[in-house]
Amino acid sequence: MLLPEEKERALRFKLALRMGLPIFLLFMIILISFFSFGEGKIPAFFLVIAVSAFAVMIYYIFYLLYQGQQERITDPITHTFSREYLTNYFKKQIDKGPYTILLVSIRNLTDINSRYGVKKGDKVLYEVGHWIGTFLKEKEIQRFPIGHYKGSDFLIGLPSTKERYQNLIDLMCLKFQNRTIDEIEVSITSAIVDTKYSRDIDQLITRLFDVAD
Prior knowledge:
- It contains 7 helices and 6 strands; from the N terminus they run αααβααββαβββα.
- By secondary structure, it is an alpha+beta fold.
- The protein is elongated and about 75 Å long.
- The relative contact order is 0.14.
């Protein structure tokens, strides 16, 4: 499982706990009223409180569901980090010390979408993102951020300087050559930059795309 999927699962779990809280409180109100007043002797004001709590609970649950959609941190196609979450994540990591950002692009994604359809293109995006994750994990690089930045482009963040990863990235691209997904040939390219160039995330990303071109 990729780091973005782990964080998304943790976020969904916290949301479920928050949604369960009002249900638990309503249950406690009903339970207390039952034992305090006995069956058939619950006063009207307590029923009003219970109905009001139920109405608030429904509103609160719908509000949390809406907020959950707004707070989604992963891209629904690739299950990697969304662009906004990823760039904010990078900013925090850059402040901690030397940092490397890697760009991996699917060179022929436009052709794939044209020839095989957008759904196949989406599957290629998903498979490539998870193949990158598997490859890096096999090289003992754990819990790294990876996100779908735009179009055919993924960004990956790695601690330390780019010299530590250059050979590894070259190997990754070499290993991916002539790879097919559902019998579709997929070609990738990469670029790498670190915080020796700049500590500004926008400048780093711009540099990556300049190098890739």
